[in-house]
Specification:
CATH class of the largest domain: Mainly Alpha
Largest sheet: none
Helix content: 55-70%
CATH architecture of the largest domain: Orthogonal Bundle
Mean pLDDT: 79
Distance between the termini: 41 Å
Oligomer: single chain
Order of helices and strands: HHHHHHHH
Shape: globular
């Protein structure tokens, strides 16, 4: 009559989540080694994201510093609705957005002149320059989703949590970003490889 369900045993805890929990607890206790580990584990990636969003090393460093300060001040408010690392990256993206808004108020100007997709030694490749130009023309949410998924390697689930949108919304943003970039690149004669999200 009924369906039988086999028990497969208990699910082993994810070591990354456990490490996140330990790091969070150390930071909450004010442990300097924990904050140093937090920076070691996430600092380089945070700088990369900020540089890709802001296009300027000084602004990127300011955004990362601001994000770490907000993390420090907000530790008591972190409730675990997402992983600790996802929460950190959400704070970083918001710090970047805040910096962009402040910059626009000071002087209306073009989007960042350079997006740091790869080391500077490859910066003169025509396809790379075309991709950077197309990326600058994207709407901010689409550009952020593209950078998080395609450049930084976050999953749609992680990207959705960082951007505070659903996983499907992350997929949609990336789809739109790819489509708009392909249109831009076609108009300049360049081509972006088509991949499924």
């Amino acid at each position: 009559m009924g369906k039988e369900f086999a028990l497969t045993g208990t699910k082993e805890p994810d070591p990354a989540v456990h490490a996140d929990d330990e790091l969070l607890e150390g930071c909450r206790q004010g442990s300097l080694p924990s904050f140093e580990r937090l920076y070691e584990e996430h600092g380089a990636r945070m700088k990369s994201i900020a540089l890709n969003l802001l296009g300027n090393v000084a602004d990127a460093e300011d955004a990362v510093q601001d994000a770490f300060l907000k993390v420090y001040r907000g530790l008591s408010r972190f409730r675990g609705g997402s992983t600790f690392s996802t929460w950190i990256y959400r704070i970083l993206v918001n710090s970047c957005y805040d910096l962009m808004r402040r910059s626009r108020r000071r002087a209306e100007g073009p989007l960042p002149a350079k997006i740091a997709l790869a080391p500077a030694s490859q910066s003169d490749h025509p396809l790379r320059l075309s991709i950077e130009a197309a990326l600058r023309r994207l709407d901010l949410p689409e550009r952020t989703a593209f950078l998080l998924c395609e450049v930084e390697g976050f999953s749609h689930r992680e990207t959705g949590r960082i951007l505070d949108v659903s996983e499907n919304a992350s997929r949609t943003l990336l789809f739109k970003a790819r489509r708009r970039m392909q249109q831009e690149l076609r108009s300049t004669g360049a081509r972006l490889a088509e991949e499924a999200p």
